[in-house]
Amino acid sequence: MLIKKRFASEPSEARVTPEDVYLNRRRFLQISALGTGLAASSAHAGLFDFLSGDSDEPAAKPSERKPLDFRSTQTPEGLTLTPESKATSYNNFYEFGTDKTDPMNNSQQLDIEPWTLSVEGEVEKPGKVDVWELMNSAQLEERIYRMRCVEAWSMVIPWVGLELGSFLKRFAPTSRARYVAFETLYDPDQMPGQRNRFVGGGIDYPYVEGLRMDEAMHPLTLLSVGIYGKTLPPQNGAPIRLVVPWKYGFKGIKSIVRIRLVEEMPPTSWNRLAAQEYGFYANVNPEVDHPRWSQASERFIGPGGFFDVTRQPTLPFNGYGDEVASLYRNMDLRKYY
Ligand code: MTE
Question: What domains, with CATH codes, occur in the chain?
Fold first, then answer.
């Protein structure tokens, strides 16, 4: 209860509070997944602890992260990095629970080594890739991108990875490949959210995502194997995940085991759960509100403390319009949200 009062006293957050968004999304999940109106319980605690740094809970022992060899880059002008401690403790990875701190607390035992990623479907040379071998052999680079969650918070994260397009070319896509479908590991023994629909937010696992072929081949689209110079921690999608900076964060599927090139638009997890709220395209768009909250602005999670909340306008295509708007020429972005 105390937690609720502290949020309610934040006047600058009156229009779209993180709590509103967060709880509304959870409430929707609980109703749709379980057919009950059970109130969110521990949800408050995780978010509040994160923002205030007041948690009594000892943080789970982080799994060991390895330094990566990569071509580094400067932080683009006008961007401030989100501190690593926040980017690795405030996460969405529903396979480990729906509270923001659940992924950090519950994923540290995820067995990520070895890890095989298979590439199949409309390719002339299907194959399986040893992801740890890929990390050593590929020319990795750093990309500092804005990341905008559909829940109206954002971060700036230094990813390390390789372009998805150049990776896919190794497998020689056929002319029939029009879309790329991605799949997260399915292992209920390791992922409590896959064992229990309540813990996993009602998603039908494995988590799946997709891109149109031209989106996948775009030079901004990254297969990421690291953040802040080191391999990904499990909560951020170790050992390999997708990053598409002009789209809402839910397109950034984590812990990928399968990539399939296909002819038809593939199903995607959030669209399957609530098609009227989450589209296939999910391009960041301040002019198209989520049915239950505005997308015009966002709460930037930066170096400041709890009372230092930065609300900033959301940019079309998350600020990457010059690079990607042409992909959607002649498309009605209200219809294809
Ligand atoms: N991938 C899987 N497999 N499961 C998930 O629950 N959540 C998505 C996306 N990828 C999710 C996922 C959502 S909603 C967001 S906002 C981002 O991961 C969050 O990435 P981060 O925790 O590294 O910030």
Answer: 3-328 (3.90.420.10)
